Amino acid sequence: MNESYKNEINEILEILGENLDISESQYKAAVKSYEAVGNWLSKEGSILYPYSPRIIPQGSFMLGTITRPINDEDDIDIDLVCKLNGKPSHWTQKHLKVAVGDRLKEHSVYKEMLESLDGGRRCWTLEYSDEANYHLDVLPSISDKNFTVLLSESFNNYQNLDTDKLAIRITDKEDLFYSLMTDTEWWRKCNPFGYAKWFFQKAIYSSKRMFALSESVDPVRPFQKEKMPLQRVVQLLKRHRDIMFSSDEFDSENKPISIIITTLASRAYDKSENIVDAYVNIVSKMRSYIETKYNAKTGKYERWVSNPINNEENFADKWTDVVQKEEYFYAWLDKLEEDLATIQYGQNKGLFSLNESLSAQYGNRVVNKAFAEYGEKNKILRENGLRKMAVGTGMLGSIGKSIPNHNFEGNK
Description:
- By secondary structure, the chain is an alpha+beta fold.
- The protein folds into 2 domains: 1-21 and 227-412, no CATH class; 24-197, Beta Polymerase, domain 2 (2-Layer Sandwich), CATH 3.30.460.50.
- It is built from 14 helices and 13 strands.
- The strands form 4 sheets. Strands 1, 2, 3, 4, 5 and 6 form a 6-stranded mixed sheet that branches.
- Helix 9 crosses helix 11 (275-285).
- It starts with a helix and ends in a 10-residue tail after the last strand.
- Keywords: Antiviral defense, ATP-binding, Magnesium, Metal-binding, Nucleotide metabolism, Nucleotide-binding, Nucleotidyltransferase, Transferase.
- One of its GO terms (biological process) is defense response to virus.
C-alpha cells in the first residue's frame, strides 16, 4: 500500500481503537470503585488490617488493552488483585479466600453486590449497577512483604527483567491443597505483574515512551488516552475475535482467549511506530510463535504458547482436551489474515468499500462512529486548506487534488 493510503488507514484505525477503549469517565469510575473496596478491606478493625491489603489492577485494565463489549448492556470485566503482605500461620488458601469474602459481606452494600456468597473458583466478583456497566473480580493473594518496593523498583528498571520476585500466591478452589497446606510455597503461583512488565517492554518503542513502565503499576494512574501501537493492535485483535465468535455457528465458550492473543501479538511485534505496520507484521507472524512440544506427562505432542515469564506454563494447555479451541484459534487466524489482506489491497476501492470491510470485522456501530469522527476531523482540516483528495478513490490526505472549502450562501 502507498504512503497516502497507509496514513489514512492508520488514522482510521487509531480513531477506531479509541472507540473500542473504555471512556475516561468509565475508567475513573472503576478506579474510584476499587479504591473504595481496598479502603474497606484495609480499614482498621478488619481481620485483614494487620497484613496491609492493597487492591492492584491486573490483566487488560493494567495493560491498557481493555476493550468495550460489543453490546453496551454487557459488563466490562475488571480484574484486580487483593494483595496481602502476610497471613496468620495457620491459614490455608481457603482461610484467605473466606476472610476476604467475609470482610466484603460485612459491608451491607458489597454483600448485595456479590455475584455469589460462596465466591468463584479464584475470585470474589462485585457486580455494579446497570448504569456502571462493569464488575470487579477480586483475587485474594499473598506476596512478599517487600513486594511494593520490588514492584516499583522492577518497573523503574527498564533493562533488568527480574520478574520472579513479582510472583504472588493465589487462592484456587480446584487446587488439591486449597484447604490443606498453610505453607504458601505449596499454593498456586501467579505472576500478572511480571507479565505486565514483559508486555510493556515489548510495547515500548522509544525512550519517549518509558513512562509506561513506571506508571503502569500505579493503581490510580491517569487515564491513558494515547496508546502505543501494540496496545491498539491487541484491542483490534480482541474485537475482531469477539465479532467473529458472536455468530451462532460458533460455541463462544471456545473462542480464542485474550492471554494467548496478547502473548502472540507481543512476541510478533517489531517496534513499528504506527498501527498499520504493527498490525500487518503481527498478523503475518502470530502463528509462527505457536510451538509444538512433546509432553512427557501425556506422551503426546501438543501445541504450546508458553508463558513468557514461566516457560513451563502453556497458555494453550486446554487445546489438547478441547480440540475445538485449537480449531477455532486457527480458523480465527485464517479469517484475520484474509480480512487484513482486504484492507491492505483495497486502496483503489474508496471509503465506502473500506467502511463495509471494517464494519464486518469490528461491528457496524463502532466503525460508523469512527468514520463520522474521521469525517469531522477532515472537515476541519479542509476548512483550513490542509486536506486533499486522491483522484479516483476519494481517500483524504496531504497528497492529491485540493478540496475547496464549502462556500455557503451567506458566507460570501
